[in-house]
Amino acid sequence: MAFSPEAAFEFLGRAHRGGRLAHAYLITGEPGSGKRTLALRLAGLLGGDGRELEAAEPADAVEALKLPDVHTVEPESKSRLIRVEQTRELEKALQMRSSGSGRKVGILFDAERMNAAASNSFLKTLEEPPSNSLLLLLTAHPEMLLDTILSRCILVPLAAPPQREPEPRQRRLLDLLGRFAQGPEASLGDVFRMVREFTLLLAEAKTDVQEEGGAELKREESLYKQTTDGKWLEDREEHFKALSESRYLQARATLIETMLQWWGDVLRQQQEAGGLDFPSEADTAGTAAAARRFSTPEALRRVAALEGLRENFGRNVQEQLAIEVAFLGAFGEGAALEKTGR
User: Fold this and answer.
1) What domains sit in the chain, N to C, each tagged with a CATH number?
2) CA dihedral for 294, 299, 305, 309, sign (positive or negative)
3) Which residue of 74, 119, 157, 311 shows the fewest CB atoms closer than 10 Å?
4) In this structure, what DSSP letter does residue 143 have?
5) Helices (H), the chain
6) Which of 85, 94, 82 is nearest to 46 (CA)?
7) pLDDT tens profile 8-22
8) What backbone torsions phi and psi does residue 184 show, to the nearest 5 degrees?
9) What value does the CA radius of gyration of the chain take, rounded to a whole number of Å?
10) How many C-beta atoms lie closer than 10 Å to residue 201's C-beta?
11) Does the global pTM surpass 0.70?
């Protein structure tokens, strides 16, 4: 049975008050299901002073809590992976004595992004958990975790979030996909026009997150520049640089996921299945047109091209090249592919 975030919090809160809390929980759910907010509310409840966290933005909430016994790990660097150095640092932090009466809490955001070395390292932590600690693993893709990790965690599945309106950049991407579905056979030039429009969306996303990070840094400067030294400012600049990069990679991943969901709707309509991610696109004949136009094997081949794009980004392949190759596979027709020798 899947929980709402509130029901899951109440369930785990009762286990805590009854002394029945396990040492590790795997919180699963689709993007937007409330995994982060749930984990941070638990951290606020258990990690020091017993306060509940109700902040909407997880990153801001972690910054606001500043609890010394709450430790977080999430993907970093261009590869968007969790590295073994991060899991080892987490284990060291959890081995330390608690600063208060609460538990030491370790949270792994996007736990499926652990590389092989990190997974094996973290498995040892699960097998011999530090005393008075709680481990929370968050993922939308539990099938990507090692079976040995899954078997050592209590599963807390969260219900799918209600349908939400696409964000502006998603809306523009869906419009682009709709034009592709209803247009004539895509030429090589058509594919590269799609590449240019997608690249423009990415450029806008990068500008937005950089401006957001710059504004946050300025707010901190105005608050602390009179009371801290230059080293603090240097560290915060590096922090916001890394944060902006992470936010950009998340925005990029959202756009790729949007394309995969769109093709998933095409496949669902071919099978006359429900549960469309973008039901409004079926009404406008976007995914419906693609379902009529392409066979199921053709649609699956195009999905594979976009999944390859996500994998190439994980391997740190040059962004523009990876996009061009993937779009030729996902949106090119036979004639266009023959011209490139693919």
Assistant:
1) 5-157 (3.40.50.300), 168-340 (no CATH)
2) positive
3) 311
4) G
5) 5-17, 35-46, 58-65, 84-95, 116-127, 147-150, 168-182, 188-224, 230-270, 279-283, 286-293, 296-314, 319-331, 334-340
6) 94
7) 999 998 998 899 999
8) -75, 180
9) 22
10) 18
11) no
